[in-house]
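Render this sequence as a predicted structure.
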Amino acid sequence: MPEPETDISDPAEALASLKAARGAVGRSMTYPFGYDLLYGGVCALLVAGQGLPQPWAVLTVPIALGALALMVRWWKNRFGFWVDGFQPKGARWVAVVVGVLFAALTIGSLVGREKGILWLPLATGAVAFVGAVVGGRWWMAVYRRDLAETVE
């Protein structure tokens, strides 16, 4: 990426330069679809794992959180920074929608365990997998759009 010009006296030109730089950052954030699949798998484990009998339900949490920590580390190594889902104002609502979905699915898994419905945690895990993959790509699209459109 070219060095941004730092000696701009015209405010409109400075804002245009900032906007162009932010858009370039968003476009440069390309990552393999496998990242989404891994993220989906981790979210599925977090959700479906709660429907497993104890102690397995408890053991799925540190495994999934450890995998998420490794994914964050990979992202930081690749891009040099990490943005949590709630920081960019425009993309925040996507994270909230996905979070509400995961909370409802986790409750479904717990109900499945309590009622002995063995297939329910599998179904909630499958929905969580799809929701994580779609939600992750959706969030990134909104984040990129926000970067390109706004200068704070």
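Summary. The helical segments are 11-28, 33-49, 56-79, 92-115, 119-149. The chain is about 75% helix and 0% strand.
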